[in-house]
Every structure is written in structure tokens, then in C-alpha cells.
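Hi support team,

I've been running sequence recovery on a batch of backbones for a student project. Most finish fine, but this one hangs at about 90% for roughly twenty minutes before it completes. I'm not sure whether the input is malformed or the queue is just slow. I've pasted the C-alpha cells below so you can try to reproduce it. Let me know if you need the job ID as well.

Thanks,
M.K.
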């Protein structure tokens, strides 16, 4: 072989190595594999390569979801000591504990994306990450426990059942369990309202007044309208979200109308009516200006919810210290 040819081979080899290095750097193969997994409706797992924005988007959504479950314990926790019977109290305690469990499954799912529990908790208590707007409204009567179960947990189910098919494995699997428990939550709320609605006149009034207050904030839980949703397009392309905010809001309204009839309660929307052409109900949208104000911290209970969470976190410092000391001791043994 002549020297010229050897040089050519060496040159070709060097070019091949450089191209492979660039492909690895650009994750060309990995991106193609990731795209194929998404297209085939398979799951992305923690060990798999994923685009940075997919990882960040998931951390954002799962963390906000986890924070919502944890903050969501407060409005109902408010009624544990005043539940009207031992049975109601036991059910409510179980439900509030379930919410804590949901928060923990979700924090664990977010941790698989390379973020620590400490970072997530810090993002909540420092106010850097959001939680659902709905938990910034007060629980003024016992009927609110029923309305939260029926409407808030009902909205959560409509929003979260599609998340069981989310493309990220740990999130999808956490959601399967969460949705089973949410169904029990929704059912217990519905049963509370049914009992009140068919009780005395005063109880019926209390149930109606509560539904009147929770209806629009529950509709707002689904987020801004599609035209203003910043994350929906990317999230749906990655199959994190399967339906848009407006689609789910509509589905929720259509689900609630016949249920309200059975409850004997009225949904507080004079323009709510069946549209035969669309095969769906027409309804009044929630006040999205109010949603954004509440999300930004200006809701009726934002300050109270955050103060409570910060206090509980500080009060729990000794538990975390003790657990860390115990773990360190075990490691030395
Ligand atoms: N409350 C607070 N923030 C909200 C919100 C709401 N109801 N709706 C939207 N937002 C925020 C978004 O987080 C986003 O803010 P960011 O850019 O700072 O993260 C911004 O408004 C724009 O909204 P997008 O539509 O672009 O956001 P998403 O595509 O993420 O859609 C969502 C919002 C539908 C809430 C979606 O994140 C989602 O499905 N999350 C998972 C479910 C969840 O977190 N539910 C919260 C309630 S949990 C619950 O109800 C528990 C139960 O036990 C009762």
C-alpha cells in the first residue's frame, strides 16, 4: 500500500470518529430512539436519554402536581376536628392521608429525573414553584368537604386519568394508583352532598351554597384557555398531556351536569345548556383573570397556605435530622 493511500485511510478514519463523536454529542441516535418511543406510544424510563426540555417540562409539571397534593391537605384538614360524625371523621382522615401519599409518589417520580426531594420542597416553600389555584380558596362549611370531593377531585380525575398514559413511565405508573384513590375521594364527596341535599332545608341550602362557590374555581383548575396555554403544544407532542385544557374542561362540564341532577343541586351558570349540534354543553368559562391572580399569589388563602406549609416544614426539621442521623449510623455499621 502506498503512503498516499495510507494517509487517505487515516484521514477517513479520523473523519468517521469525529462524525461519531458529533452524533453522540448531538444525541442523534438517542433523539431518533426517543422519537420512535414516543411515536410508538411506549414509555420513556429514567435510564433512557431524553431531550433536556422534556426532562425540565416533566419536572415542572410533576413537581407542581406533588406540591398541589401536599397543599391540598390543608383545606380539608381544616374540617377533621369538626366532622359531623365519627364515620365522617375517619373517612376524611383517610382521604387527607391519601393526599399526602399522592404527594410522596409524585415527588418520588420527579426524583427519577435527577432532582432531589430537598430541591423540590425548597422550590415550594420559597414560592419558586406553583401549586394548583384551587387550594387557595377557603373551606367555610362542612358541605365544602363534599364539594371538594365531587368537583375538585372530580376535576382532578378528568385531568389525571389521561396522565396514566403519559409517556414518562414513573409518572404514568404513579397516576394509575392515584386515580384509583381519587375515585374514592370523588365518591365520598358526592355522597356527602347527596346526603345534605336530601336532608333538611338548611342542609340543602348549605350544599347549594357550597357548589355555587366551588364551581368556577373547579373549572379554572384545568388551566388557561388553549389559546393562552404556554406548555400544551410541547407537552402534547411529547404525549405528557393527552388532551388540551379546554377539551378536559368541556369533558368535566358534560360529566357534572347529569350528576348535579341526581344530587338535586343546580350548577350556578344560567347559560349552561345542551348544544345538540356540538353534542356538548355550552357553558360560561371561568374568570381567567382571577385564575392568574390566584396563581400569582393573590387568592383568598395563598398567604395562609404558604405560612402553614413553612411552619410545618420547620416543625418537622427534627424528624429529618433524626432520620439522617439514623441513616448515617446504619451506614457505619
Ligand atoms: N393552578 C396553578 N397554576 C396553573 C393552573 C392552575 N389551575 N393552570 C395552569 N397553571 C399554570 C401552569 O403551571 C403554567 O405555569 P408555569 O409555566 O409557571 O409552569 C401556566 O399556568 C400556563 O398553563 P399551561 O396550560 O401552559 O400549563 P400546563 O400545560 O402545565 O397545564 C395543568 C396545566 C393542566 C394543570 C397541567 O400542568 C397538569 O395537568 N398537571 C397535572 C395535574 C395537576 O397538577 N393537578 C393539580 C391539582 S392536584 C389535585 O387536584 C389533587 C387532588 O387530590 C384534589
Amino acid at each position: 500500500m502506498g503512503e498516499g493511500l495510507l494517509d487517505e485511510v487515516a484521514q477517513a478514519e479520523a473523519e468517521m470518529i469525529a462524525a461519531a463523536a458529533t452524533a453522540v454529542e448531538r444525541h442523534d441516535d438517542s433523539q431518533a430512539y426517543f422519537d420512535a418511543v414516543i411515536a410508538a406510544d411506549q414509555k420513556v424510563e429514567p435510564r433512557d436519554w431524553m431531550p433536556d426540555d422534556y426532562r425540565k417540562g416533566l419536572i415542572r409539571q410533576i413537581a407542581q402536581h406533588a406540591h398541589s397534593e401536599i397543599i391540598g391537605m390543608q383545606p380539608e384538614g381544616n374540617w377533621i376536628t369538626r366532622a359531623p360524625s365519627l364515620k365522617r371523621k375517619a373517612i376524611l382522615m383517610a382521604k387527607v392521608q391519601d393526599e399526602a401519599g399522592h404527594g410522596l409518589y409524585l415527588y418520588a417520580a420527579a426524583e427519577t429525573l435527577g432532582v432531589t426531594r430537598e430541591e423540590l420542597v425548597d422550590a415550594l416553600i420559597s414560592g419558586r414553584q406553583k401549586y394548583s389555584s384551587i387550594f387557595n380558596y377557603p373551606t367555610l362549611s362542612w358541605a365544602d368537604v363534599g364539594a371538594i370531593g365531587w368537583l375538585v377531585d372530580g376535576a382532578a380525575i378528568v385531568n389525571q386519568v389521561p396522565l396514566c398514559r403519559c409517556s414518562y413511565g414513573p409518572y404514568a405508573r404513579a397516576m394509575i394508583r392515584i386515580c384509583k384513590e381519587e375515585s374514592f375521594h370523588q365518591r365520598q364527596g358526592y355522597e356527602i352532598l347527596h346526603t345534605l341535599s336530601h336532608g333538611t332545608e338548611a342542609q340543602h341550602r348549605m350544599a347549594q351554597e357550597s357548589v355555587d362557590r366551588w364551581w368556577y374555581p373547579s373549572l379554572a383548575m384545568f388551566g388557561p384557555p388553549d389559546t393562552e396555554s404556554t406548555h400544551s403544544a410541547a407537552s402534547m407532542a411529547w404525549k405528557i398531556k393527552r388532551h388540551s385544557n379546554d377539551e378536559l374542561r368541556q369533558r368535566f362540564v358534560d360529566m357534572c351536569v347529569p350528576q348535579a341532577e341526581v344530587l338535586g343541586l343546580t350548577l350556578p351558570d344560567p347559560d349552561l345548556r345542551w348544544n345538540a349540534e356540538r353534542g356538548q354543553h355550552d357553558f360560561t368559562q371561568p374568570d381567567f383573570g382571577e385564575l392568574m391572580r390566584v396563581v400569582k399569589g393573590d387568592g383568598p388563602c395563598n398567604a395562609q397556605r404558604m405560612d402553614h406549609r413553612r411552619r410545618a416544614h420547620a416543625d418537622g426539621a427534627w424528624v429529618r435530622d433524626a432520620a439522617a442521623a439514623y441513616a448515617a449510623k446504619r451506614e457505619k455499621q
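--
Follow-up from support: It reproduced on our side and the slowdown came from queue contention, not your input. The two ends are 65 Å apart (CA to CA). No action needed from you.
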